[in-house]
Specification:
alpha/beta, Rossmann fold, 18 helices, 45% helix, Nitrogenase iron-molybdenum cofactor biosynthesis protein NifN, nitrogenase activity
């Protein structure tokens, strides 16, 4: 059983985690025509904006209520109302996603009531724009909690209730009047709730695989449509792709919900409670067994066998496993990541014969930590990671771990958020057969490039010492 060591320091020396409001903002960025709005000071938003721009290398429409000293002391409903009205007037977004920060949350204000009053008093001016609140104080949780809270809030606020139940009654009526011999129509829509750690390429690949079974995937949020590196033909003040508000409204018409990551279980449970759509949770989509389970589920839902290209992807992964396992056996791996990504990567390396000697994560709230295949997990920062990772063959974390890699002289595999010192991080594939194959190649190539082959001088010296003994 893994032993989880609590955080002991009162301050992060070299922070590992990103904040809740940043996670919520990333989720809102996956909705078409959306603008995330940080309720707090301008500095909080600027820091998050810099990380997003450096990671995605794209223009990010992130705004702030810009609370000043007076609003911090007396409360900021006036700033919140002014910001919402300004965004509506200047950008006319389909959705404004409000992410509260520590500055606003420490006053214990009733933000839900304030927003309700703003929408009631300004109903005519705000017509056509959804306003969704995610309570995401910086001092609690981490990026994955903020992501999950934003998706939960969108489902709670936007998704229509009881749609599957009403659809079932309609299907019963159709069945009664159907002529003998007519085939019963199949329900084709599948709702997918991806975790924050899935890249733009991962989500795009998920859609392609689901569509190959004749299914219609609705992905919430869909950052592959808004942060995929395309250049729009004109300047856009909002996101220019992603899940539409109409699709969020109609999530209840899906035949099945699939969530990826333990932190996405709560949004999936809420969707089931509100609409009756059953859900299946995947702790990870990386690895042969997880990919097989996902493909089998799609085949069951669609009623058709896996297409030939899926079988080819699987065969390529099997070949990569054969080619790559020589490079992983006995390797010592140190990983620092948020809980679900820590589980995803640690099970990947363990499955190839490596050993997890160091596991550091940003928050201890996730139940998935109990399943991480490591002797112990430290809740901490990159300072703890550097202290514990000596002797590893590979460090696995985001770009802020590059200094630790340099000081320890250990190669670094960049994963997660942010990755700002390499191009194309959002297009790295990590899930299903192709993503697992690519991860094998990337890690194995790092091992080969950093192989420490003994020189003839060292071998001679070792031989002489043995003979002298």
């Amino acid at each position: 059983m893994v032993h989880i060591h609590p955080q002991t320091k009162s301050a992060a020396v070299n922070p590992l985690k990103s904040s809740q409001p940043l996670g919520a903002a990333l989720a809102f960025l996956g909705v078409e025509g959306a603008i995330p709005l940080f309720h707090g000071s301008q500095g909080c938003t600027s820091f998050a904006l810099v990380l997003c721009v450096r990671h995605f290398k794209e223009t990010v429409p992130l705004q702030t209520t810009a609370m000043d000293e007076l609003a911090t002391v007396l409360g900021g409903p006036g700033h919140l109302e002014e910001a919402i009205l300004n965004l509506k007037k200047r950008a006319n977004p389909r959705l404004i996603g409000i992410c509260t920060t520590a500055l606003a949350e420490t006053r214990s204000e009733d933000f839900a009531r304030q927003i309700s009053e703003i929408k009631m008093m300004r109903a005519e001016e705000l017509a056509g724009t959804e306003i969704v609140l995610a309570n995401t104080p910086d001092f609690d949780g981490a990026l994955e909690e903020g992501w999950a809270k934003a998706i939960t809030a969108m489902i709670q606020r936007i998704t229509r209730r009881g749609q599957q139940a009403r659809r079932s009654k309609k299907a019963t009526m159709i069945e009664r009047i159907r002529k003998p011999g007519e085939q019963q129509p199949k329900r084709r829509k599948v709702a997918i709730l991806p975790g924050w750690h899935l890249t733009v390429a991962d989500i795009e690949h998920l859609r392609e695989v689901v569509e190959s079974f004749g299914l219609n995937p609705v992905i919430l949020p869909d950052v592959s449509g808004s942060l995929d590196g395309t250049v729009p033909d004109r300047w856009m003040p909002t996101t220019y792709g992603g899940t539409s508000v109409e699709d969020i409204q109609e999530l209840g018409t899906a035949v099945q919900c699939i969530s990826v990551g333990e932190h996405m279980r709560r949004p999936a449970e809420l969707l089931q409670k509100l609409t009756g759509v059953p859900y299946i949770s995947f702790e990870s989509l990386t690895g042969l067994k997880n990919a097989d389970r996902f493909v089998s589920l799609l085949s069951e839902i669609s009623g058709v066998p896996a297409p030939a290209k899926i079988h080819r992807y699987r065969a390529q992964l099997q070949d990569a496993l054969l080619d790559g396992h020589f490079h992983f056996a006995g390797k010592k791996i140190a990983i620092a990541a948020e809980p679900d990504q820590l589980y995803q990567l640690s099970t990947f390396f363990i499955g190839l014969g490596a050993e997890i000697i160091t596991a550091v994560t940003a928050t201890g709230a996730s139940e998935i930590l109990e399943k991480v295949p490591a002797e112990s997990i430290q809740i901490g920062d990159l300072g703890d990671f550097e202290n514990l990772a000596g002797g590893a063959d590979l460090l696995v974390t985001h770009s802020h771990g590059r200094q630790a890699a340099e000081r320890l002289g250990i190669p670094l595999l960049r994963v997660g958020f942010p990755v700002f010192d390499r191009l194309g991080s959002q297009h790295k594939l990590t899930v299903l057969y192709r993503g697992t194959r690519d991860l094998i190649f990337e890690a194995a190539n790092i091992f080969q490039a950093n192989r420490r082959t003994p020189s003839p001088e060292k071998l001679d010296a070792l031989h002489m010492r043995r003979n002298a003994g």
